[in-house]
Amino acid sequence: MKLWKHTLLALVTTSAMCTVQAKPVPLDKVAVIVNEGVVLQSDIDVSLKTLKANAKKSGQQLPEQSILIDQVTEKLIVDTIQQQEAERIGVRIDDNRLNEAIADIAKNNNQTIDELSASIAEEGLSYSEFREQIRKEIAASEARNALVRRRINILPAEVDNLASILATETNATVQYKIGHIQLRVDDGDNKAAIEAEAKELVAKLNNGADFSTMAYTYSKGPKALQGGDWGWMRKEEMPTIFADQINLQNKGSIIGPFRSGVGFHILKIEDVKGLETVAVTEVKARHILIKPTVILSDEGVQKDLNEIIRRIKSGETTFGEMAQQYSQDPGSAAQDGELGYQTSDLYVPEFKHQVDTLPTGQISEPFKTVHGWHIVEVMDRREVDRTDSALKNKAYRILFNRKFNEEASAWLQEIRASAFVEIVEENEQE
């Protein structure tokens, strides 16, 4: 979405440079036929004016007119194909989302909505035309995101490998405050029994037992009389058996039991310095999905979902029963429609908007995504410390962005190559 914001911000900030004077214009002509749609000559003319105004403002030298026309025409062809893809998969941008986007444009341009509207008018573009242009660009962007996401496959091993590289870079500055319990194994000792004891201590620690008390009581390690406290250390300062077990875990983590030549060990990360902390909100939601068919229209689906909402609210049935009976998402339908605790950024934009904004316990109105029509209820929200997975998240984002850019370029080339495009010559329109 950044691309259309930059484009539109450039459009609305050049009013002083390229005021369009009202004058008679010839009847608009079709310049390019693109599948079942068209690019008009007026579209090309407006884009050329905007491009030249922006170049003049920034002092950028432009190539000759014929090259500019070819470049602008090609961009408009690709934009048109993307908008057609948005229509094909049913992307719809409602007025609320459109108003939020326009408010963001005005805010980023240090303008009020009225000031934005006035500057648009100075460019020779009506506010209603501007709104529809924004709506189309958001829809095209969301269609691209949805369709390209399906092409991306990131293997866990890829994430782990990149996270390890990032961890190596990060570990140089991270310090850990370490607690340690050692259960010694001497010759002739029952190793299985000592291992079982170590596991029992870990269970108690995870249930809230005080680590230093447990260290005083059970540890045979060198810091037992200090409550197992090794103080602050970087990984290169730790005993190797400690360093091998620590991989950017967050504060409070219990590690072990793990074995060495002298016995079994348990570590606790008492505190961390220099590590990026990540706290996220996880949402527990449930939904019902119904897909339109050649027989069941969008209006019919909405009617069915509204009837389901009515029956749930009246107490005739439950959300879970309706999900099992009607939802066409087989994975969640078997779980009463429940999706479990997830961060909302895993969902497509329309679904994410609903789970981010719905009050807990409230069922949404029917809404459409690329998957079909949904109703959703937010069951719970919780804050989760994800510091231990911060680098994996970062590695995933790096890989995703890298692959998204690669796949987006390939996708654009594919839809351009498969589209019917015909340049309409001047004499064909006479």
UniProtKB/TrEMBL annotation:
User: Pfam families per the record?
Assistant: Rotamase, SurA_N
Q: Where is the PpiC domain?
A: 173-271, 280-380
Subcellular localization is given as: Periplasm
| Coiled coil segments of this chain | none
What is the top-level taxon of the source organism?
Bacteria
Q: Name one GO cellular component term.
A: outer membrane-bounded periplasmic space
Q: Which gene encodes it?
A: surA
Entry note about domains: The PPIase activity resides only in the second parvulin domain. The N-terminal region and the C-terminal tail are necessary and sufficient for the chaperone activity of SurA. The PPIase activity is dispensable for SurA to function as a chaperone. The N-terminal region and the C-terminal tail are also required for porin recognition.
Per its database record, what is this protein's job?
Chaperone involved in the correct folding and assembly of outer membrane proteins. Recognizes specific patterns of aromatic residues and the orientation of their side chains, which are found more frequently in integral outer membrane proteins. May act in both early periplasmic and late outer membrane-associated steps of protein maturation.
Any idea what this protein is called?
A: Chaperone SurA
- Signal sequence annotation: 1-22
